[in-house]
Design a protein that fits this description.
alpha/beta; Nucleotidyltransferase, domain 5; six-stranded mixed sheet; five-stranded mixed sheet
Length: 501
């Protein structure tokens, strides 16, 4: 049952840690709609601070943290469940970013999710679809970010095709116009680089596949504003408009001399790279005119957060899709899920597992613990973990996807200690406790029958768990007793004590 609107937080916020700019948008939920009440944007140029080894330099880290401290002041009174913060392409690529993310979380006061390119594309489409008229037919959405470019075809509120390309206005400008000099030769090289990225996906996004095209985010808005300042139709980008703007860039010869009405100063340096991508998207996909949408990733985050709070969670839909795709035994999944959640309610306080994600990920792992059987019975838990780690699961940030994969991968046999160590704190510790509950639930339903389990009393204490069965029940079920003894051995190898009696 969906949550009643009056039980929702009055105010929601989304923060987008992009490769070029950091954005924050705050909205009030009123009469079934989200009404934007505040927007903040700062140009951080995170992508420009990424060196060849994938490490962020001190200057970019400093700019980012100063920005997040200011954002954090605005979010200081907001509850955790009403705020979502995501990092995109540069944070996906960055190496050894753990220390920076810890400081960033402290500055913001809220956890940061690193999302995949495909998930970024889904959220962008959600933001565009909820802020533009719902015309009939398929729409193409293009978003040129600082480090990546997302292409989406969708209908209504549903994204049908999603792609994230490894090129953006900051990265393309840094590669071909690093010193600010703009020449025909450099522009040709940049356009060729864009062509090479677009070509593999061109057939899936060409003109015959959609009815109208929309652009989202800063590059599109910057180009549209500059063209509108020349008297062209507001909120639109055309092929001849791009050609005129390319000519102005070449005429200026340097980004510092690119003084055009409507063009913000902080966009001068990265405009040439963005234009090289944009003109090739027009040419290769057959775009004639593109309308600039009001919504983008941050608005998509808000609507996705609203969906989670009203039980329309995209993650739950992804789990159902995986169940269907890999022919999960639904009845068995129901049994394991119910038992695992019953166990969680008993140990939640003792093991401090009261975060909402603990229950959600245990529920999803119970439903998906057998997805690997569709590949092979031998080591099916490992196959399942691989699928969940690497599949496109709309709604899941990378940390949550890794957590789900870790639970499934360790639900039988030996625990995968290496996989657990790679999880984001505090889940590298709490995941092990959830795994114990999942393992017990799977073990107790090994017979796969409808017979109900007895009342089992769980008593947690540190890294130990005592399971109290009704008197005489284990003696009447010797196979289960033997399984529990073997399970105790497996867990002892991981430094965990299980006692059943």
């Amino acid at each position: 049952m969906a949550k009643a609107p009056e039980s929702l937080p009055d105010v929601l916020a989304a923060v987008d840690l992009g490769s070029n700019s950091f954005h924050m948008v705050v909205a009030r939920y009123s009469h079934g709609q989200l009404v934007i009440v505040d927007r903040l944007r700062e140009s951080v140029r995170l992508a420009a601070g990424l060196d060849e080894q994938g490490r962020l330099n001190r200057e970019s880290i400093g700019r980012a943290l100063h920005c997040l401290e200011r954002f954090g002041q605005r979010l200081s009174d907001m509850k955790a469940g009403s705020v979502r913060v995501v990092g995109t392409n540069t944070l996906r690529k960055a190496k050894r970013k753990g220390a920076f993310l810890d400081r960033a979380r402290e500055a913001l006061g809220h956890p940061i999710e690193i999302i995949s390119g495909v998930e970024e594309a889904r959220l962008i489409y959600l933001g565009v679809a909820n802020t533009t008229p719902s015309d009939s037919g398929h729409r193409l959405v293009v978003d040129i970010g600082g480090g990546s470019t997302e292409l989406i075809i969708g209908e209504g509120l549903a994204a049908k095709r999603l792609e994230s390309l490894y090129m953006g206005c900051v990265s393309m400008s840094a590669q071909h116009f690093a010193d600010g000099v703009i020449t025909e030769k450099r522009m040709k090289r940049a356009r060729t680089a864009a062509q090479l990225e677009i070509e593999p996906v061109m057939a899936r996004f060409r003109r015959t596949e959609w009815d109208a095209a929309f652009g989202a985010s800063g590059t599109m808005r910057s180009v549209a504003d500059t063209l509108a300042a020349q008297g062209r139709p507001a909120g639109q980008i055309t092929r001849d408009g791009i050609e005129w703007l390319l000519g102005e860039c070449l005429k200026a010869g340097e980004t510092a001399k690119l003084k055009l009405p409507g063009l913000a100063i902080d966009r001068q340096e990265i405009l040439p790279g963005g234009l090289a991508i944009l003109v090739e998207l027009f040419d290769m996909l057959g775009i004639e005119m593109l309308r600039v949408a009001d919504g983008a990733l941050r608005e998509g985050l808000l609507y996705d957060l609203l969906g989670r709070l009203t039980d329309e969670d995209a993650r739950a839909r992804s789990v159902r899709a995986m169940e269907a795709r890999f022919h999960v035994d639904g009845a068995q999944a129901d049994r394991v899920e119910a038992t695992a959640l019953t166990f969680l309610r008993q140990v939640r306080a003792g093991w401090k597992l009261d975060e909402p994600l603990a229950e959600l990920v245990l529920r999803w792992a119970a439903r998906l613990h057998e997805v690997g059987l569709d590949i092979a019975h031998s080591h099916y838990h490992k196959h399942g973990a691989y699928l969940l780690q690497h599949a496109d699961l709309p709604g899941f940030p990378r940390e949550e996807q890794s957590l789900l994969a870790a639970l499934v991968g360790s639900h039988r046999r030996k625990l995968n200690a290496a996989q657990l160590e790679e999880l984001t704190p505090p889940w590298h510790v709490k995941a092990e406790l959830l795994i114990v509950l999942l393992r017990l639930a799977v073990l107790l339903h090994r017979g796969r029958g409808p017979r109900a389990l007895p009342e089992i009393d769980l008593r947690p204490k540190g890294r130990s768990l005592e399971c109290i069965f009704p008197k005489g029940w284990l003696e009447a079920h010797p196979l289960t007793a033997a399984d529990l003894e073997q399970e105790a051995e497996f867990l002892r190898g991981a430094g965990f004590r299980l006692r059943a009696g």
